[in-house]
Design a protein that fits this description.
The chain is mainly alpha-helical. Helix content is 71%, strand content 0%. α1 packs antiparallel against α12, α7 runs antiparallel to α8 and α9 crosses α11. The longest helix is centred in the middle third of the chain and has 34 residues. The radius of gyration is 21 Å and the shape is elongated. The relative contact order is 0.14.
């Protein structure tokens, strides 16, 4: 929750940059978007639609980290003999033999894929609220007043399936992003352990790493997550706000049609609008998330 409060204003700017028309953009860049948003809507405009992702982020992070641990256990079960599995069952989490970086990346990708089922509806509600700047984004005369208004509209217009608009893009982003997020974090921690072990002459575990070391690993993980599949995130945002920002009767675009039209309109640059600010804001957020996770794991096991 703390991480979401820190990052949300940056996320609003990112989504508005991603979804603005390429032929007549509303903003010239992140600072222009920030200035116009505050001028027209006040500071509260930067937190538009926050209640949905605030709740969603708790569920998402729970799904990510619980899924990450469970997949690691499954990998150990499938990669060890019966006698070895029996022995490992009696060991604590810290005493278990470490998995390889490739196995950890697989666990991260799997947990991301699991989280995408929770995240797609949350992202859809968030994006629909975030793109409303003044009177520039209105659905068939409807100006959304909050998350429940969006939920009611989507349910009445598209049914339950409407909440999974952009699911493929979210799945690709979360599975690939999860691999980079956990992979970069685990790799950084492994390098710190490798560096410290010869100096101490003793076995160094992840629980022995300091808060700054864990936070650096988390920050690098967050930056890798956002930089790696940012074009997919742009496609997702476009798909989830189609009916708000495209002319009536245009219809909802598929993943590949959205990508094709984006490239035709703006080349490869169209897939990186808002990338810089997104990568920058992800560093402190992921640093806080991983530090909190590790400290809670040490306390509760």
């Amino acid at each position: 929750m703390i991480g979401k409060f820190v990052e949300y204003p940056f996320d609003t700017i990112k989504v508005r940059l991603q979804t603005q028309p390429l032929d007549h953009p509303f903003f010239s860049g992140p600072w222009d978007c920030f200035r116009k948003t505050v001028k027209q809507e006040g500071l509260k405009g930067l937190f538009t639609g926050m209640s949905s992702p605030l709740i969603g982020s708790m569920v998402e992070n729970a799904a990510l980290f619980v899924g990450y641990r469970q997949v690691q256990r499954m990998i150990r079960d499938y990669s060890t003999m019966a006698e070895e599995r029996e022995r490992l069952q009696h060991l604590s989490e810290d005493e278990l033999p470490p998995l390889s970086i490739n196995q950890l990346i697989l666990a991260g990708a799997s947990s991301g894929a699991i989280a995408s089922f929770v995240l797609t509806p949350v992202e859809l509600i968030k994006c629909k609220l975030q793109v409303q700047l003044g009177s520039q984004a209105v659905i068939q005369g409807v100006q959304f007043t909050g998350p429940f208004h969006v939920i009611r509209h989507v349910m009445q217009t598209h049914g339950l399936a409407g909440f999974y608009r952009g699911f493929l893009a979210t799945l690709l982003r979360e599975a690939g992003g999860g691999a980079f997020w956990f992979g970069a974090y685990e790799y950084t921690c492994a390098q710190f352990i490798k560096y410290r072990q010869p100096q101490t002459g003793e076995m160094v575990l992840k629980k022995d790493l300091s808060a700054p070391e864990l936070m650096l690993g988390g920050a690098l993980g967050g930056m890798a997550y956002n930089a790696s599949l940012f074009p997919v995130d742009v496609i997702k945002s476009q798909m989830q706000t189609d009916e708000q920002l495209l002319a009536a009767g245009t219809g909802q675009r598929s993943f590949f049609r959205t990508a094709k039209e984006l490239y035709a309109a703006g080349g490869y640059r169209a897939f990186y609008r808002g990338c810089g600010i997104t990568v920058a804001r992800s560093a402190p957020t992921s640093a806080i998330i991983f530090l909190t996770y590790e400290l809670l794991s040490r306390h509760f096991g």
